[in-house]
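Tutorial handout. Part one gives the primary structure; part two gives the three-dimensional structure as tokens.
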Amino acid sequence: MKLLFRVAATLSLASAPFALFSPVAAQEAAAEPAASASQIPQPQFLQSGDEVPWLYEDSDVPVDEQWLFGEMDNGLRYAVRRNGVPPQQVSIRVRVDAGSLHEREWEQGYAHLLEHLLFRESKYLGQAEAIAAWQRLGATFGSDANAETSPTHTAYKLDIPNIDRAKLAESFKLLSGMIREPVLSEENVAAERPIVLAEKRERGGASQRVADLTRRTFFAGQRLASRNPIGTIETLQGANAPQIQDFYDRWYRPENTVIVVAGDADPLILAGLVEQWFGDWEGTGEAAEAPDFGDPVPPEDTATASATGLPIGELAVGVEPDLPRSLTYAIMRPWRKVQDTIVYNEGLLLDAVAQALINRRLEQRARAGGSYLYAQVQQDDVSRSTDATFVTFAPLTQDWEAALADVRSVIQDAITNPPTQEEIDREAAEFEVVFVNQVEQASVEAGSRLADNVVNAVDIRETVASSQTVLDVFRGMKDRLNPAEVLERTQKLFEGDVVRSVYVTPAIGEATSDELQLALAKEVEVDGSARLAAQTISFDELPPIGEPGTIVSERPLGVLEVEQVDFDNGVRALLWSNNAEPGRVTVRVRFGAGYRAFDEETAVYAPLGEMALVGSGLGELGQNEIDRLATGRKLGFDFAVEDAVFTFTAQTRSSDVADQLYLFAAKLGMPRWDADPVIRAKAAGELAYNTFSTSPGGILNRDLEYLVTDKDPRFATPSPAALEAVTPEGFREAWEPLLKQGPVEVLVFGEFDRDEIVEKLRLTFGALPDREPIPDEIAARVPDFPEASSEPTVLEHRGDANQAAAVITWRSGGGMANIRESRQLEILTQLFNNRLLEALRERAGASYSPQVFSKWPTDLPAGGTITALAQLEPDFVPIFFDEADRIAQDLAANPPTADELARVTEPLGQLIRRASTGNQFWLFNLEGASTDPQRVDKLRTLLSDFSQTTPEIMQFLAERYFGQRQPLKLAIIPEGQELVEAPENAGEVAQGAARPERREPEIVGR
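Part two.
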């Protein structure tokens, strides 16, 4: 059941009326596929009456009645339900109980390779036809059509929008062909192998070496220690069709398969389709018996015990010069299938409260200037291989032993002494608000997420529960939330069979395994100084922002029922009270000048502001006091520096929105300037900087925006040298005037009492002093574009020698005046993206990394870019440039085909339709409209701008941006190598079928 936490900015052909976009209350008037019971077989294997659904066997957790369960004679199990979020979408999941832990020694990587092959060719899909087939159904690759291979399973995921009878039938047909009858030929294996090897190459480098070391150390003696889903070079290169077929026959069988479907359709029709397409499926040959994943056990010769008395097992010290220090130790226990009862879940909640108490204390120690940057305790069941409690922290200096002692002393206090009831009540209040919020949001929970929840439950061998059941269980066990029981559960979290640890350091000789063992064996002092006062702070006790403001104007904005309210101090608010998302409110505050506000001297303080501005407090409240203020409430405080504006954003509840407005207004009206958050942010920046050099992707993250803006210092990642000059005083000097500068716009979208919020706005934002104007020289700042050269800029990384990246960027535009053109550019970039995938995927070994995207700043008149990039082998960098140039020039010279366009515009149109059912879509598209009326006018054509075009328009835009403008080229190659020349036949890089980008679950997720 897992009660807890196991529990693009936006020429047109036609106007789109607002009726196309109006939010739909979830589950209301769900659209039926054009299918009837006579056309789709009635399900024969539904579990009904007194029969316990297969997911709930041996459990007393109340069955979620929204789901219908079935188990067919061939052993295949399924779960289906109606869900109208988003409207007219159906989410299908096919889970096969076979992952990397099911592989034999010589089969490492086969589960993942097989996942690729199922997309490559199957009964109803010829070679390289998958991407086009799903796009024609309206699915966006990488999000709507995807798959994952983990140590314990392989899951295929499909979200089909704008569903009707034909699409639904076609989707099940195609999926059944993939799952039941893939074409596992030698030709297909040979074609997919380089793609998988490319994925493996892209995952290499320092971070992967640490992940491998961690896996080998923590799971020593278990299958998980040596089995990464990506496999090994040797096993992948040795794979052949008969071997893959053998793996498929052993594991891809109906009795190993679960199908989950949630969507805007009659669940009986969904169940009938599952049975129609999978009911006669039979496995080939003998079924395999699942292997024993093994238990964590101490080495036989272990004589040393940790301070807790547990034997110390495998230890490792990894030296990575470009990674910050990090130490993790784990208390390991065997994983066993649980009886998923209410009592068991009550125990999980007690565990969660215990961990939350410790983590709050650890965070308090870090905030106060401790010896570590961060620390966290987390219990985790890893891949049905271990039940472990992980302790992870980042020492600030080479004195890792002092940091270890500090962290363990806080934990030892939690193990030795019971918490106060007030502390427990504080954490319980945090969980209460989460569970209540889930109940409030149950009617708008996306079908895709519900389907994923069932897949996860099957994977961990537990059940699912409705949000109401979770809340009821929580409220029914509150008498167990007492100091004695929390202390008992805390102690059990640190009991186990063996302690293991990994320390990563940039310095050779800083630590050895023996020294790590001695440090873990030392007696631990009990330190309760990190305990926090548990009392809450009431908003009623806080001072007023200022004299209440006066409303000078209230009027409709002119779209939907959004209202604009203006105050005499210049603050403008956009309000839309609606019940599309029950109980949920999004608040965003836009103010100031964004990146425009910084110059060369103050540029370093921009990213530090994103890390430290909120933490530096407000009024008389520091970060700890703000945390107490938020107890039992759903409040947020996300801060971002954008192109031309600063933003505060929060997802809150109807009952908390008034308090949320006070917090945001107080940050502007009475900011506080605590030094510790700035010092901590500075340390984090210094420790992280070298990590960018460990891979081509890291260099891209560090330098791409800086280079594209002609080395504008505002967009540089601060180096340790730049950070050295940072002080808390300098931080305040840079930021204090910016909080007073520029107009303020407040957007409140969601379910709230309109009159109450208008009055709260009058008392908060309306009470702010008049804003200072943005100076003309700041308002005029627009990022430049470098003078392009025919030769690429070359940067070096310190990662693996077979990794490289290539980027080509064209200047585009910006501003709302041409926003409709930017929407059409999104179609053009998707066309480009499809072609680049097809050109590079196989022959250039680029896996799924090639991508093309457009950035169009709406708040600036210029500064936009179109970028194509890929990660690949160094020898293929010149080929990338040639292929990107060739595609760009061909798009400029020749119009695309109608089919090409349809494969892009249909998914884009469906993406807009689905997104438009939520408040955040409207907020995103209307922000700034209180001072810029064209944002409303040009919203009317948004759907058609993204989903309707002509080949001629695409050619026109390609000629404008690709045919007449010299791009910036950037190559990132391994240190010590030189950029090679492109081969003469570079233009002959083969067309390859593209597949969705997929990300595998991390083996050790903490």
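Part three, for discussion. The mean pLDDT is 92. The two ends are 20 Å apart (CA to CA).
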